[in-house]
Amino acid sequence: MSLLIILGLFLILILIRIPIAFAMLIVAAIYLVGADISLKLLAQKVAGGVDSFSLLAVPLFLLAGFLMNTMGITDRIFAFAGAVVRHIPGGLGHVNVFASVIFAGMSGSIIADAGGLGTVEIKAMRQAGYRDRFSAAITAASALIGPIIPPSIIMVIYAFVTEVSLGRLFVAGIVPGLLMAGSMMLLIYFLAKTNREHCPVLPRATFKEVVTTFYGAILPILAPIILVAGIMSGIFTPTEAGVVAVLYVLVIGVFLLKFRLEHIIDATAEAARATSATLFIIASAAIFTWIVSTANIPQAFSELVSNWVSTQFGVFLVIIASVLVLGMVMEGIPILIVFGPIFLTIATNVGIDPIHLGIVFIMTMMIGGITPPVGITLYVVMAIARVSLPDFMRSIWPFYFAILAVIFLIALFPSLCLWLPNLAFG
Amino acid sequence: MLRLYGTICKVLEKAAGFACLALMACIVVAMACQIFFRYALNTPLSYTDEISLVSLTWLTFIGAGWIYRKRSHIAVELVAGKDNNSVLSRSLDVIGQIAVVTILVILASQALELMPRALKLKLGTMELSRFVMHFLPLMIGCALIILFAIEHCLNSLTGKREEDNITATSASE
Amino acid sequence: ADVTWISGGLGTVSSDEGKAANKFTELVTKGSNGRIKINHHHGGQLGKGQEQMESVSTGTQQMFISAGSQASRLVKSFGVIDTAFLFKDFDHMERFMKSDMGQQLNEQMIDEFGVRVVASNWFALPRYLMHREKFIETVEDVKGVRTRTASVPMYVQNYENMGATPVKIAYGEQYLAISQGVVDMTEAAANRILPTKLYEVAPYITEADMMFPQVSVFVNEEAWQSLSPEDQKLVSDAAYEAGVYQTNLSQEGFAAQKEEIIAKGGKFKRMPEEVRQQFVENTRKNIDVMVAKGLIPEGWFEKITALRDSN
Ligand code: NA
Ligand code: NA
After folding, report:
1. Inside any domain, residue B39
2. Which of B71, C35, C130, C230 has the most CB atoms around it within 10 Å of its CB?
3. Domain limits for position B144
4. pLDDT of residue B78
C-alpha cells in the first residue's frame, strides 16, 4: 500500500518537472523515513551506484556515436542506407530502421543510436517533409534494435545475473533483431501505403549511387565487423569494444575526413553530458532495487505465478506483462538485476530455456525504454526532435504492437532464437 | 549581488565542464592502454580498470552538477518548447528547486556522516578509499547542484530569463 | 515477531549457499517460535559484497551471509584466508579461524566496524584451476599464463606468486574472455563450475585445491547485543547447523555435478601434493612483498603453516 502512495508521489513530482533522478531520490528518502531505515543507506547506495565495469560502455559508445556525428560519419551510414531502401513506400522511415541495424552491430547502447544516429535521421526526415513526431517514433523504436543485435551491454548483464553462456546469448539475438527491424519496416510500409503518414516518395538510387555511398560508408560499415571480430578473436572484451569503437572513429576522422579539434571536443562534451544525465539516474535508481527487494515483492510475485500458471506460454505472458508494467516505472538494468533471477526460477520450472527467456525478457524490457514516465530513449529522442510527450505517444503506439508481435512470435517459436546458437555452438 | 552570484555559478559551471572533459579523456586513454598493453605487449596493466571506474563515478556526479545549470537533466516535458516563463511555470519551478535542494542537503549530510568510516575503507587493488572514490564526488556534485538550484530559484523569483535550455543531447545538432 | 532482521546474500536461491541460508532462517524462526524473524534476500538484491558489508557495519542491514573473505573489505588481514595453497584442507582452515589469529581478526572487526562473525563453518568446495588447453601438472605449466582474476589484491598476488600473468576481467565477461582467449586460465570453486558453464570454454579442470572458500554469517554488533544471551545462542547454533547442512549439500551434490561436467566434455585431474608444495614454496619466496603490501601480517605465514597438521 505504501508503495502505491510512493508511486503516486513520484508521478506528481515528475509532472511538476522535477528531473527523474531527483524525483527518485525524494520518494526513496520518504520511503526510508517511513520504514524507519537510516537515510545513510541512501547516500551509500547512490555514491556507489555506478561503480560497475559494464557501465563504462556507456560513455564510450556514446562518445563513438557523437564522434561519428560531428565528423560526418553518421551521414555516410545514413546516405548508404538511403541509397538501398529509400524508394520503398515509407522512404526515409525504412532508411532510419536500416541505418539502426548497421549501427547496432557496433553499438551496445540504445542512447548512442538514439543520440548519435537519431540526430541525423530526424534532421533528414524533417527536411524531407516528414512529421517530427513520426520521425521521433521511428528513431526511438529502431534504436531498440541496438541491444538485441550483438554486441550488447544489456546481454552481458543478463548473462551475469542468470549465469547463462554469453556467447550463445549474443548469437541468439541476431535473428530476433532482424525480425524487429522487419516488423517496423512492414509497419512503416503499411502507414505509408494507407496514407496515414505522409512519406514523400524518393527516387530509387542508381546502381552507381549505391556503389558510391557504399564506398563512402565502407569504413563505418566495416566497424561492426572489426568489433565483433575483435571480441571473437580475444583481442578485447565487449566492454572494451567501446574504446575500440572510439579509436576507430578517431582514426577515420584524422586520416580520411577533414576534422577539427573542436569536433572532438564538442563530441566529448556532448558524450559527457549524456553520460552524466543517464548514469545519474542509474545511481539514483540503485536504492529502488533495495526497496523492492526488502518489501518482499519478488517472493510474493514468484509464489503468485507458480500457483496460477503452469504452461510455458502462460509463464511468458505473465513475464511479458510484468516487464511491460515494470518498464514504465523502472530502468532496464535495475529490472534485470532484481527480476532476472525470479523470472529464471519461474521459467525453468516449466522448462523454458534460459537463453530463450533472456531474449524475450530483454526485448520486452526494450519497450520500457520508450514508455513514460521512465524511459531514457524516449526523452533523448524527444529532446532531439523537440516533440511533446502527447505528440510522441500518438506516433509511437503502433510500434509497441510491432515489437510485441515479434516478441510473441519468438515466445511461441523458440527455434527463432535458439536455432542459430545451437548451430554455432552445438 | 545577484550578478555576482550568477558570475560565480558561471565560473563553477565552466570548471566542472573542464573536469568532465578531462575525466572522459581519462577513461578513453586508460581503456585504450589496457587493451594495448595486454594484447600488443602481453604485460597487462593492473590499475587501468580502476582508473577508468573511478573516473566514471567522478564523471557521473561532477557531470550531474555541471549539466544542472543548463537544466539538462532528463525530465518529463509534457509540452516541449512552450513558454516557460508563465507565473504558474515559475512557481512550480521554485517548488521543484526547493525540493531538489532539500533532498541534496540530506544526501550530502548523510555522506558527510559516513565520511570517517569511508576513509578507512580501501577498495580494489589501488586501495583508494571509498571516500575518494564515491563520497567525495557525490558531495561535490551535490554542492554544485545546490548552488545552481538556488540560482534557478532566484531567476524564477525575479523573472529573469535564463540562457536557452539545452538538453542532454541536442546541442550537437 | 519481536525482532525482524534484514539479511542479504549473493548466491541465488538455488545455490547451496542460498539453500543453507533458507535453512538457517527456518531454524531461527522455529527455534524462537516466531519471535525472531530473518528476512533473507538472495542473489545480491541488497547490493554487491562491498555495499552489504558496509550496510551491516552501519546497521542499515543486520546480517550478511557470504564468503568469509568479504570481511577483508573491512579488515584487510582477513584476506589471508584467500592465500593460494596456504591451507591444506577445510580442517586446517577451521583451526586457523579458531586460533588466536582468527580471534584477533574477529575482535578487530567488532571494535572498528561493529561487525561480528557468528559462524564461519559453511564450507563449500575447494577452488580448482581451469585451463583452455591443458592440466596444470607442474609449476612450470602456469608460467606466464594469462589468468583471469577478480579485482582483489590477494587474488592478483596469488597469480604473481605462481608466476602466472593476472588479467583483471569483470565476472560477467569471464566466460567470453576465456572462450576467445583474452585469458587462458581461471579458477572456480568446484560447485560453481557447472552453473557458470565455464567447463565449456576451459574444459581442463585441475583439482588444485587452491583455496578453501567458506561462507560466514556476519551480524551487526548492535543488533547482536540487543538479543538476550539465550537468543544469541539460538541464532549462533542455528547458523552452525546450517553450515553443516551446506557442507554436506556441497559435497553430496558435487558427485552428480562432476559426472554431468564430464559427460559434457569437462576433464578432471588431481594436482599432486608435491606440486602444491612447490607452489607453497613459491609463495614463501614472496612473503616479504606480501607483508610489505599488508596482505599478510608479519610471521603469520609460518604460524598458519604450523597449524597444518596439528589437532
Ligand atoms: Na534509427
Ligand atoms: Na519506461
Report:
1. yes
2. C130
3. 2-158
4. 55
